[in-house]
């Protein structure tokens, strides 16, 4: 009888929103003591749930279950529109916005909407001027990590984007696309055409800064 009453009281918190268990470190509250115990591992660093395949450890058992799918290949959450599948329901929800057009995250400055909060944060740097990714070679700063990686190729000489027609290498897809116009005939090889091509290349370089 005591057990039945306990579970009834515990369940009622779903409806009442009561959260009687506060975290002593950050104040976040929980409906159940078990939820608080799992949360406290964030502060203590304890990770008692280990992957039997690679040894990676997690604070929560649920996180371990999700991680194991990277080894098993299991993707239980499928899109009803295109059939694409995901390891987590949250990833599926984000993907479905490509079909619905939903953009729940809006920029407070210009109103532009985004499907993912991460993309909103990247966009906001346009307004704030924040450039958190700095090149260790020359000190140039960038708003996005991918832009920094692309820039670093100017120091390393890496040119991973190769033209399928002539084998010439480029440090980014933008330069490769401009170059491909020579082969398709969109850009001629006269002096005027060459100057036009160089202008396109320079504008592409500016875009990726």
> Helicity level, as a percent range?
40-55%
Given the C-alpha coordinates, what overall shape results?
Answer: elongated
Q: Report how far the terminal alpha carbons are from each other.
A: 68 Å
The proportion of residues in beta strands is: 5-15%
Helical element count? 8
Specify the biggest β-sheet.
Answer: 2 strands, antiparallel
CATH T-level fold name of the largest domain: Double Stranded RNA Binding Domain
| Structural Rg | 26 Å
Domain unit count: 3
CATH superfamily of the largest domain: Classic Zinc Finger
- The topology string of helices and strands comes to HEEHEEHEEHEEHEEHEEHH
Helix-strand makeup class: mainly alpha
The level 1 CATH classification of the largest domain is Alpha Beta
Strand order, largest beta sheet:
1-2
- What is the name of the CATH architecture of the largest domain? 2-Layer Sandwich
Mean of all residue-level pLDDT scores = 86
Strands, total number = 12
Pfam family, one: zf-H2C2_2
GO molecular function: DNA-binding transcription factor activity, RNA polymerase II-specific; RNA polymerase II cis-regulatory region sequence-specific DNA binding; zinc ion binding
Keywords: DNA-binding, Metal-binding, Nucleus, Repeat, Transcription, Transcription regulation, Zinc, Zinc-finger
Main location: nucleus
Can you put this structure into words, describing what you see?
It is a single chain. With 209 residues, this protein is mainly alpha-helical. It folds into three domains: 1-44, Double Stranded RNA Binding Domain (2-Layer Sandwich); 77-128, Double Stranded RNA Binding Domain, CATH 3.30.160; 133-184, Double Stranded RNA Binding Domain. Helices cover 50% and strands 11% of the residues. It is built from eight helices and twelve strands. It has helices at residues 2-16, 33-44, 61-72, 89-100, 117-128, 145-156, 173-184, 191-207; strands at 21-22, 29-30, 49-50, 57-58, 77-78, 85-86, 105-106, 113-114, 133-134, 141-142, 161-162, 169-170. Helix 7 packs antiparallel against helix 8 (191-207). The model is unreliable at 190-194 and 202-209 (pLDDT under 50).
């Amino acid at each position: 009888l005591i057990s039945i009453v306990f579970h009834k009281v515990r369940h009622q918190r779903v409806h009442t929103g009561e959260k009687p268990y506060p975290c002593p470190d950050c104040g976040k509250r929980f409906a159940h003591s078990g939820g608080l115990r799992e949360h406290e591992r964030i502060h203590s660093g304890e990770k008692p749930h280990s992957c039997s395949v690679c040894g990676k450890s997690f604070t929560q058992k649920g996180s371990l279950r999700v991680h194991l799918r990277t080894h098993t290949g299991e993707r239980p959450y499928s899109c009803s529109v295109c059939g694409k599948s995901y390891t987590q329901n949250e990833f599926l929800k984000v993907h479905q916005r490509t079909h619905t057009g939903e953009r729940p995250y809006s920029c407070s400055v210009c109103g532009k909407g985004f499907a993912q909060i991460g993309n909103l944060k990247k966009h906001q740097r346009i307004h704030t001027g924040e450039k958190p990714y700095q090149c260790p070679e020359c000190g140039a700063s960038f708003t996005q990590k991918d832009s920094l990686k692309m820039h670093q190729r100017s120091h390393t000489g890496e040119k991973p984007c190769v033209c399928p027609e002539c084998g010439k290498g480029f440090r980014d897809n933008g330069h490769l696309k401009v170059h491909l116009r020579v082969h398709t005939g969109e850009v001629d090889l006269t002096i005027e055409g060459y100057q036009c091509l160089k202008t396109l290349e320079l504008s592409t370089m500016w875009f990726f800064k």
